[in-house]
Amino acid sequence: MHVTGRSLPQLLTEARRWFEDALLATLKETGATPISPTQVQLFAVLDEQGTTVSELARRMGVARQTAHQAVHGLVAAGLLEQVPDPTSGRQRLIRRTAQGERTHHQASALLERLEEELAGRIGQQAVDALRAALETSWGAPPVL
């Protein structure tokens, strides 16, 4: 029985938004560089050694132009930089600056605290069950 009548994808989107909203509001309170939800998502899919804009767009599920705009804003804010890709003379890698690393670590710590807050609200058992379900491989998406 579905209590709210909303689909599971809608509920997952709302849950992600809860974390993003809390993270952005908390970062704002600490005086961190303001960033958008799209930029938060970009930070979440960025590899430590750097990632191309095309790969970032694929991981985020957005157009390359959207990823490029998010990167441009984060470069302007001093959180990301573009460097030559050592494996390709034509591509550039996007990676965190020292300030971006500090912000990333701050955000990671805040997300851990938000999980603790969520556990206080819905119970640790529910959070553990949710994590277990999301960490389980669902296999390839089916064609129904």
Written account of the structure:
The structure is a single chain. The protein is mainly alpha-helical. The chain has a single domain, classed as Winged helix-like DNA-binding domain superfamily/Winged helix DNA-binding domain (Arc Repressor Mutant, subunit A). The chain has six helices and two strands, in the order H-H-H-H-E-E-H-H. The protein has helices spanning 8-29, 37-45, 53-60, 64-76, 98-122, 124-135; strands spanning 80-84, 92-96. The chain has a two-stranded antiparallel ribbon with strand order 1-2. The longest helix is centred in the last third of the chain and has 25 residues, at 98-122. It starts with 7 loop residues before the first helix and ends in a 9-residue tail after the last helix. The model has no long low-confidence stretch (mean pLDDT 92).
